[in-house]
């Protein structure tokens, strides 16, 4: 299954609504903040912090959706719905997908900014 | 458009969301202040007035549900319209927000067109509510407004221990015959302003205004520690203010005002009477008749304030009163013990 990391329609709508310059700032903020959210997911798993786990997954999902990063939002949402911070094989697989999709999304966002 | 100046509070723990929401509302011409969690938001709400709040649900420290619950408990804050903006999962959570008092729900990422429509509609509703409140305050006392806001409007009364005060201008007809109707209205307006100030100061509420007559209730809808003492204190303030007013009237060669005040205390039935569409907060009971009769009796004994026995026993410790004796009053089968407060005129 290959999905484009960023939905161009969502990204263009965002640019139209908020302005291209602002979107550059917003993308930079997201790229700064997202690694922290992913790190929080792992920390919450280790400490079995259910609330922290759900919140970090929720934030990541929410921000991915802002830019149309559906492929990143999907595993984040599944993690959010898991509810408990248990390192099951499914959860670990989802985390790996999050890592991978974040790399792809951030590369796509960076290249879109330079367009 | 007056709503363009509206000041919004954006509450979201996520930086990207805060930036984007601020940008979106600023592009719509509103001003935005941001808070990073519910706790911070509550502090800001208590510190200044906002026209609307955009509230996230998933937040550390204090989440959106907790904010909605806390606001319900603070009467000063509960008028602010709240739109929940969240990508929280599950219809149950959205229903919970609405149940807790949120006006609307916008899923994230927030669609700018929807945001514009919801903000404008919520702010317009708030403007109308504020306008209604202002109007209500003009026609009802703040105690009645507070009672309406807390308990809602319901026809029907309840038994309360209260004090009734009737006040009337002595010889009003003669006064109004001696001056133009315009001058009389102007005099009445000043008179009412002065009387209301004294009454408000002692937590009474005016339940009736007819011509130059006033009926005032102490002890309902909000109970008072000693409704009789409040009523007598209000009556004395009323006389003192009118005395000052009379000095000005005399200087302007205009007619002076003399007051007659009757006060009675006991059980009355107080509540909203009327129809669903037009009602007034009032009270009934034989104490109401008694207060009115006592007021009428003031001209016969030339004492400005007459009170009944129940009022007398509630204030006699702190208030010198002269017994007038047992008086036959219209509508009362037995003579009634009457007392006069203060000096004779």
As residue ranges, the low-confidence spans of chain A are none
The CATH class of chain A is identified as: Mainly Alpha
Parts with pLDDT < 50 across at least 5 consecutive residues of chain B:
none
How would you classify the quaternary structure?
heterodimer
Total beta-strand segments of chain A: 0
Structural class of chain B: alpha/beta
Question: What is the CATH architecture assignment of the largest domain in chain B?
Answer: 2-Layer Sandwich
First CA to last CA of chain A: what distance?
26 Å
* Largest sheet, strands/sense/barrel of chain A: none
Number of domains of chain A: 1
The proportion of residues forming helix of chain A, as a percent range, comes to over 70%
Number of DSSP E strands of chain B: 13
The biggest sheet of chain B amounts to: 8 strands, mixed
CATH class membership of the largest domain in chain B? Alpha Beta
- CATH homologous superfamily heading of chain A: HPT domain
CATH structural fold name of chain A: Four Helix Bundle (Hemerythrin (Met), subunit A)
Compressed to H and E, one letter per element, the order of chain B equals EHEHEHEHEHHEHHEEHEEHEHEE
Shape of chain A: elongated
Give me the CATH fold name of the largest domain in chain B: Alpha-Beta Plaits
List keywords for this structure.
heterodimer; A: 115 residues; mainly alpha; Four Helix Bundle (Hemerythrin (Met), subunit A); 5 helices; 0% strand; B: 345 residues; alpha/beta; Rossmann fold; Alpha-Beta Plaits; 2 domains; 8-stranded mixed β-sheet; 5-stranded parallel β-sheet; 45% helix; elongated
Please characterize this protein's 3D structure.
The complex is a heterodimer of chains A (115) and B (345). Chain A has 115 residues and is an all-alpha fold. Chain A has one domain (8-109): Up-down Bundle (Four Helix Bundle (Hemerythrin (Met), subunit A)). Chain A has 5 helices and no strands. Chain A has helices at 8-18, 20-47, 50-66, 70-82, 89-114. The longest helix of chain A is centred in the first third of the chain and has 28 residues, at 20-47. Chain A starts with 7 loop residues before the first helix and ends with a helix. The model of chain A has no long low-confidence stretch (mean pLDDT 92). Chain B is of the alpha/beta class and 345 residues long. In chain B, helix 1 (15-27) links the parallel strand 1 (7-11) and strand 2 (31-35). The mean pLDDT of chain B is 88. In chain B, strands 6, 7, 8, 9, 10, 11, 12 and 13 form an 8-stranded mixed beta sheet that branches. In chain B, strands 2-1-3-4-5 form a 5-stranded parallel beta sheet, with helices on both faces. Chain B has 2 domains: 2-135, 3-Layer(aba) Sandwich (Rossmann fold); 142-341, Nucleotide cyclase, GGDEF domain (Alpha-Beta Plaits). The A-B interface holds A 14, 17-19, 22, 25-26, 29-30, 33, 51-52, 54-55, 58-59, 61-63, 65-66, 77, 80-81 and B 13-17, 19-20, 23-24, 27, 58-60, 87-89, 108-109, 112.
């Amino acid at each position: 299954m290959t999905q484009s990391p960023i939905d161009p329609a969502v990204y263009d709508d965002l640019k139209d609504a908020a302005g291209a310059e602002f979107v550059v700032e917003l993308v930079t903020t997201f790229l700064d903040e997202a690694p922290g959210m992913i790190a929080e997911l792992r920390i919450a798993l280790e400490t079995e912090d259910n609330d922290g786990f759900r919140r970090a997954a929720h934030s990541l999902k929410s921000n991915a959706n802002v830019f149309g990063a559906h492929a990143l939002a999907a595993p984040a949402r599944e993690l959010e719905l898991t509810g408990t911070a248990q390192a099951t094989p499914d959860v670990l697989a989802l985390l790996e997908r999050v890592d991978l999709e974040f790399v792809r999304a951030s590369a796509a966002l960076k290249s879109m900014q330079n367009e | 458009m007056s709503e363009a100046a509206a000041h919004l509070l954006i509450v979201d723990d996520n930086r990207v969301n805060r930036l984007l929401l601020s940008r979106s509302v600023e592009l719509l011409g509103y001003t935005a202040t941001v808070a990073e969690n519910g706790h911070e938001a509550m502090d800001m709400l208590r510190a200044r007035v906002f026209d609307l709040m955009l509230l996230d649900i998933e937040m550390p420290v204090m989440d959106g549900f907790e904010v909605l619950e806390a606001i319900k408990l603070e009467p000063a804050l509960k008028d602010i319209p709240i739109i929940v903006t969240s990508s929280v999962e599950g219809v149950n959570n959205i229903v919970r927000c609405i149940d807790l008092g949120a006006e609307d729900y916008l899923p994230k990422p927030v669609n700018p067109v929807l945001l514009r429509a919801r903000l404008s509609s919520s702010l317009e509703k708030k403007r109308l509510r504020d306008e209604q409140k202002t109007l209500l305050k003009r026609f009802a006392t703040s105690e009645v407004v507070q009672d309406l806001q807390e308990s809602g409007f319901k026809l029907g009364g309840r038994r309360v221990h209260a004090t009734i005060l009737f006040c009337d201008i002595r010889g009003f007809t003669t006064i109004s015959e001696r001056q133009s109707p315009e001058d009389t209205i102007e005099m009445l307006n000043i008179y009412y302003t002065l009387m209301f100030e004294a009454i408000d100061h002692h937590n009474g509420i005016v339940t009736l205004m007819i011509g130059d007559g006033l009926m005032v209730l102490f002890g309902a809808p909000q109970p008072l520690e000693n409704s009789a003492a409040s009523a007598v204190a209000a009556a004395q303030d009323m006389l003192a203010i009118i005395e000052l007013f009379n000095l000005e009237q005399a200087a302007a060669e205009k007619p002076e005002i003399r007051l007659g005040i009757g006060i009675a205390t006991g059980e009355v039935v107080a509540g909203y009477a009327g129809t669903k569409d037009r009602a007034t907060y009032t009270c009934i009971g034989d104490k109401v008749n008694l207060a009115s009769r006592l007021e009428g009796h003031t001209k016969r004994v030339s004492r400005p304030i007459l009170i009944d026995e129940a009022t007398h026993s509630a204030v006699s410790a702190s208030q010198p009163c002269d017994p007038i004796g047992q008086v036959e009053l219209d509508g009362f089968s037995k003579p009634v013990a009457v007392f006069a407060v203060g000096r004779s005129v």
